[in-house]
């Protein structure tokens, strides 16, 4: 070795680096943001197996790798905030870092360790890939309205890291969880840590040549799991009312209606020219619980063809049905599946999750049958249908399954970087936009074939 000083020095550096990695690895707790639906459980299990394989090559004692949906009985753990006290109590004494990963987040463990060693573990840190709003938006409650870009929040797809203990922020109660609100919660009005950008936390595609430096990359958010669901297996229910027959319904007909095989418009007025069906429920200015439950009843009746899936949308929802057909190939319709963009109400105080109606609510027939067999009903016709359904599902112990490809708001209401690694399925609202132009830009695929087989290859790979 004395004759080869450079090789000896390099060997010593490699040994020291390996020891440092081993020490740091023992101080990390990986938390996979898993869901209880069987498809998502299988994805999370594969992700955990990959992490175990990587970490076992670095240490004999692998770090804890947890599946979020199985940690406690609290249904709201998916929002992260309610589970932080539990994780702090369980791992706060022996671990320095909590690493949260979405199911599609790939991790190169050695690169992650190298990135974390830059930060003094004696201090509190909140690390991630920062996003920001260019304009104040309703989905973030118009936070920082004067200059929304000054506050950064994490892109969960890149993963994010919290250093334990985070004692200050754990004293608070938990409210509606969103990316920005998690950051606000930890920031604690300037008393806690702000989000620190880590360039190695990326949302580049897994095999992208630009991802060589990345500790995290993305696999497909929802791979094509088999043949796309046939359009004959999806019944589409569009909620409308007389005053929007000439304003919103024509947009549906110009954009996505042609992709539907079975579709009905439900209104408070019968209009043969559309045509619409009057379910006998008066129109309400707010919540449409009575109308939605009437749709559920009609879906399981002999009035419509029997299908495996029900899609309920508003008349100002823009949606790609071929992309939905591909996504649904991953789900088992014999399970009670309730799919869409998930929100929560009072999750830190025993609340419930629900699917935001504007982005589209997807139900398997099994889920609709379970819902209607229960005693759950609207307390008023104008109650918020999505939230009432959430309460019903919570009472029945049925999970709400989240997909980030559904959107309750317009593209303008989301960070550009957040949408950059998506092939979205839906957006909502016509306010201050040209909805046909939005559909053509974001949801219309290059191929005009009405068959999902006609979709271009890149769209399939990203979905």
From TrEMBL:
Subcellular location: Endomembrane system; Membrane
Topology with respect to the bilayer: Single-pass membrane protein; Single-pass type II membrane protein
Record keywords, A-Z: Glycosyltransferase, Membrane, Signal-anchor, Transferase, Transmembrane, Transmembrane helix
Subcellular location, principal: membrane
A single GO cellular-component term on record: membrane
Keyword Glycosyltransferase (UniProt): yes
A GO molecular function held by the record: glycosyltransferase activity
A Pfam family it matches: Fringe
Keyword flag Membrane: yes
Top-level taxon of origin: Eukaryota
Segments forming domain Fringe-like glycosyltransferase: 228-433
Protein family: Belongs to the glycosyltransferase 31 family.
Protein name: Fringe-like glycosyltransferase domain-containing protein
Species assigned in the record: Oncorhynchus tshawytscha
């Amino acid at each position: 070795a004395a004759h080869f000083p450079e090789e000896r020095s390099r060997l010593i550096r490699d040994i020291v680096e390996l020891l440092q990695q081993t020490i740091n690895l023992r101080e990390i707790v990986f938390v996979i943001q898993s869901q209880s639906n069987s498809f998502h459980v299988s994805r999370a299990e594969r992700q955990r197996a990959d992490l175990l394989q990587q970490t076992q090559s670095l240490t004999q004692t692998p770090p804890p790798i947890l599946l979020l949906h199985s940690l406690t009985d609290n249904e709201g753990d998916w929002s992260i905030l309610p589970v932080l006290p539990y994780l702090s109590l369980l791992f706060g004494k022996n671990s320095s870092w909590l690493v949260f990963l979405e199911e599609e987040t790939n991790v190169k463990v050695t690169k992650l360790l190298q990135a974390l060693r830059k930060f003094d573990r004696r201090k509190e840190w909140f690390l991630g890939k920062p996003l920001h709003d260019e304009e104040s938006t309703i989905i973030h409650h118009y936070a920082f309205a004067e200059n929304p870009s000054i506050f950064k929040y994490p892109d969960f797809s890149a993963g994010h890291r919290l250093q334990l203990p985070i004692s200050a922020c754990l004293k608070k109660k938990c409210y509606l969880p969103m990316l920005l609100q998690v950051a606000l919660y930890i920031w604690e009005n300037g008393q806690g840590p702000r989000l620190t950008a880590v360039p190695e936390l990326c949302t580049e595609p897994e095999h992208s040549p630009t991802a060589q430096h990345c500790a995290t990359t993305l696999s497909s958010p929802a791979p094509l799991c088999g043949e796309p669901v046939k359009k004959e297996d999806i019944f589409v229910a569009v909620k409308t009312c007389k005053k929007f027959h000439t304003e919103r319904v024509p947009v549906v007909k110009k954009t996505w209606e042609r992709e539907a095989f079975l579709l009905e418009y439900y209104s408070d007025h019968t209009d043969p020219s559309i045509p619409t069906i009057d379910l006998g429920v008066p129109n309400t200015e707010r919540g449409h619980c009575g109308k939605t439950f009437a749709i559920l009843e009609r879906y399981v009746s002999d009035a419509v063809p029997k299908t495996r899936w029900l899609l309920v949308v508003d008349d100002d929802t823009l949606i790609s049905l071929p992309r939905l057909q591909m996504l649904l190939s991953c789900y088992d319709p014999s399970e009670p599946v309730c799919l869409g963009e998930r929100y929560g109400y009072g999750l830190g105080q025993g609340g419930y999750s629900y699917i935001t109606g504007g982005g589209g609510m997807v139900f398997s027939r099994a889920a609709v049958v379970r819902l209607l067999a229960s005693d759950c009903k609207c307390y008023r016709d104008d109650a918020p249908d999505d939230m009432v359904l959430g309460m019903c599902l919570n009472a029945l112990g049925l999970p709400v399954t989240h997909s980030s490809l559904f959107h309750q708001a317009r593209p303008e209401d989301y960070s550009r970087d957040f949408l950059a690694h998506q092939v979205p399925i839906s957006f909502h609202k016509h306010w201050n936009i040209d909805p046909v132009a939005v559909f053509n830009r974001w949801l219309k695929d290059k191929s005009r074939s009405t068959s999902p087989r006609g979709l271009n290859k890149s769209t399939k790979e990203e979905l």
